[in-house]
Write a structure and sequence with these properties.
The protein is an alpha/beta fold. 36% of the residues lie in helices and 17% in strands. It has 13 helices and 14 strands. It has a 9-stranded mixed beta sheet with strand order 6-7-10-9-8-11-12-14-13, sandwiched between helices. A 3-stranded antiparallel beta sheet has the order 3-4-5, with no helix packed on it. Helix 4 crosses helix 12 and helix 8 packs parallel to helix 11. The radius of gyration is 21 Å and the shape is globular. About 4% of the residues have low confidence.
Length: 387
């Protein structure tokens, strides 16, 4: 969906205005300076200069600084604001075949995905009608969920494979999280789920810094990711994974989908202290943190559900309810699987409540996976007092 409100929030992803504080201001607006001085200027303690507004034209949105005209795909429901020069490696999630194999549906999230979505709503607390940005929205499933609960949902992702319902109801932008195409404070609430682990350390810091600019000085950012450490409870999950691998070798479980989803993880966050340091470098601090020790999830989702899915496949009824066929693909539209049946969805919702025990019972035990609520540091870089 391309609304007037969205167009008003957009900006060139790579060009900065000349105005700024005494440390980052420039006397002239020159694109070569945008290219060479982008990093030091956006690192300024004031938050950096504004990004350049785009001018509407019949053919798209043009940046008056660099001259690039970014296309508006009205029929597909999104604006293409990907930088025209590379800013780093591209994840496999930008691949069409990868999305086809995922078979995402627009059904409400369930199981661990619902646990993450509900933790986002609980910690971020978006108000009704408030703009909320999904950083790395993928097909737009979580943005649809956020919008269903009253937020003015928007999503940005590098891949144009959006669910058809997301394209018609969510404000969608094709963009790179390391160069967000938004004005400062455009989205006072933003979240990132299962994204940061796909980036190297400089990329994590860049995404956090760009998010800091998008939420503004009084905004909030929710993240779900993980540090490379674990608790004693994680030994239980590892035991379940070892059992699942043995069952996989016997053809009782299909590991391909989960292995595919994690195959380009960089896992750059070494510890929670390391993450805190990356946040501070980006002008953020962790206001709240809740850990995600998976015990119920390991049994229900990583083992029993996979056994059930593989059994259904062998019976000729795939978990998605169809065989994937490689055919014509419409650019800007996700390869959608069928929605689950009413009974299957009801069972999954019941199991979701069981999975929430992982957070209720073990959320205070330090481990790698965590939910974090981040807020901007004051311009002087001092830490605020946590509640």
């Amino acid at each position: 969906m391309i609304s007037d409100a969205l167009l008003a929030r957009l900006a060139c992803p790579v060009c900065l205005e000349a105005a700024g504080c005494p440390a980052c201001a420039r006397t002239t607006q020159e694109h070569e300076r945008c290219r060479s001085e982008y990093e030091p200027r956006v690192r300024c303690r004031c938050g950096g200069p504004e990004k350049v507004r785009l001018a509407r034209e019949d053919t798209g949105l043009r940046c008056p600084c660099c001259g690039v005209c970014y296309p508006v795909h009205a029929a597909e429901g999104y604006v293409d604001l990907v930088p025209r020069t590379s800013v780093g490696d591209v994840t496999q999630y930008a691949d069409h075949e990868f999305h086809e194999r995922l078979g995402v549906t627009d059904a409400p999230p369930v199981l661990s995905a619902r646990v993450k979505a509900d933790m986002m709503r609980r910690m971020l607390e978006p108000a009704a009608g408030e703009p909320v940005l999904d950083l790395g929205c993928g097909a737009g499933k979580m943005a649809l969920y956020a919008g269903a609960h009253g937020a003015q949902a928007a999503g940005v992702d590098l891949a144009p494979f959006f669910l058809s319902r997301a394209a018609s109801t969510v404000e969608l932008v094709l963009g790179d999280l390391r160069r967000l195409p938004f004005r400062q404070g455009a989205y006072p609430r933003a979240y990132s789920l299962d994204v940061l682990e796909h980036l190297d350390e400089p990329g994590v810091e860049e995404v956090l810094r760009e998010a800091r600019r998008a939420i503004g000085p009084s905004g909030r950012l929710f993240v779900y990711t993980h540090a490379m450490e674990s608790s004693r409870l994680a030994s239980f999950q590892r035991a379940v994974n070892r059992l699942a691998k043995r069952l996989g070798r016997r053809g009782l479980i299909d590991h391909e989908r989960e292995a595919m989803r994690k195959s380009d993880h960089r896992n750059a966050i070494r510890s929670h202290e390391h993450f805190d340091a990356l946040c501070a470098a980006a002008g953020l601090e962790v206001a709240q943190r809740r850990y995600y020790n998976v015990v119920a999830k390991a049994v229900v989702e990583d083992l029993l559900l996979r056994l059930y899915e593989q059994r259904k496949r062998k019976a000729g009824q795939t978990a998605e309810g169809r065989e994937h066929e490689h055919g014509e693909h419409t650019h800007g539209q996700a390869i959608e699987g069928p929605r689950p049946g009413r009974i299957a969805l009801g069972v999954a919702q019941v199991l979701t409540w069981f999975l929430k025990l992982d957070v209720v019972l073990f959320g205070g035990i330090r481990t790698g996976p965590f939910f974090g609520l981040l807020r901007p540091l004051p311009p002087d870089g001092s830490r605020s007092v946590r509640p």
